# Entry
Amino acid sequence: MATFPHRLPAHAAPATSPAHLRSVRLTLADGAATTLHVATYIPARTAVRVVRLPRQEPLAAFCARRGLEEALVGGFYERPSGRPLGELRTRGIARRHVPFDAPWA
# Structure
């Protein structure tokens, strides 16, 4: 079980970080640590959709090119092919992907 000790120190996040974003450092049961990034949105003002980027690029560059204020990474991909790891469907169509290995398949 992870513990939620505190927010990251102020120097760990940019001073201009929006109020709806926060990061929390977690200590895992085995003693390892990781960072949990949390974004809170008002559903009535939020549009959600799934997009597969046509080529690998930083998310910030994709947003800038499309005029988007924000985006979230919601999956993983295989390198160097860029194929999604695990099943991906957009517009109801199953896209080429790399299946998960057992026992996650």
User: Anything to note?
Assistant: The chain is about 10% helix and 25% strand. The radius of gyration is 17 Å. The beta strands are 3-7, 21-27, 33-39, 76-77, 84-85, 89-90, 93-94. Residues 8 and 26 are 10 Å apart (CA to CA).
